[in-house]
Design goal:
The chain is mainly alpha-helical and 181 residues long. 72% of the residues lie in helices and 0% in strands. 30% of the residues are buried.
Length: 181
């Protein structure tokens, strides 16, 4: 039996909400801020959400129209969340569009840098990108960036081994960041 298109769109909303919620929950784990020493600031939180989102979107790439649509809606949800966060921080209505656009551009730049490193399995190149972005260029944070790079590479491998349809069901199997040394 075939359902009208609006049925499938309605069913995807809870999936997008659950997927994005899982990404944010993973990015907000205290271990990232306490042990990995990611700055617990709006910028640090943005970096970790963008990093985890990028790994999910990387897995959804090239997986067919349904999963590509989920990826797009997930990115749209991210942009909506960034807009809401800016409003909470008191950014004025006129500045919101340009700030969200800059955040989206920042996301794409980071995703491109990570893609190069992930494609080659290059921990050092990934750690360089993480020092630059997550740790604001603070070279003293290189040990934490190296650990975060190992986490990202392991999570990327886990996602690659996961059946892509699991993402459509909002079944994300994240790694325990505390278990990565």
């Amino acid at each position: 039996m075939s359902y009208p298109a609006f049925w499938s769109r309605r069913r995807r909303r809870p999936t997008i909400h659950a997927l994005y919620g899982a990404i944010v929950a993973q990015a907000r784990q205290p271990v990232f801020y306490l042990d990995y020493r990611v700055p617990d600031t709006p910028e640090g939180r943005f970096e970790l959400i963008a990093l985890h989102l990028g790994l999910v979107l990387r897995r959804l790439q090239g997986q067919g129209d349904g999963l590509r649509e989920i990826g797009q809606k997930l990115f749209d949800r991210f942009c909506g969340d960034m807009e809401a966060n800016l409003r909470e921080l008191g950014v004025g209505d006129l500045a919101i569009p340009s700030r969200v656009r800059r955040m989206a551009e920042a996301y794409f730049g980071r995703a491109e840098a990570c893609e190069r490193a992930l494609s080659g399995g290059d921990t050092a190149l990934l750690a360089d990108a993480l020092v630059r972005n997550v740790f604001s260029g603070d070279a003293a944070r290189r040990p934490q960036a190296d650990r975060l790079a190992r986490y990202v590479l392991a999570l990327d491998a886990r996602f690659a081994a996961t059946v892509a349809d699991a993402f459509a069901g909002a079944n994300l199997d994240f790694l325990d960041p505390a278990a990565v040394s």
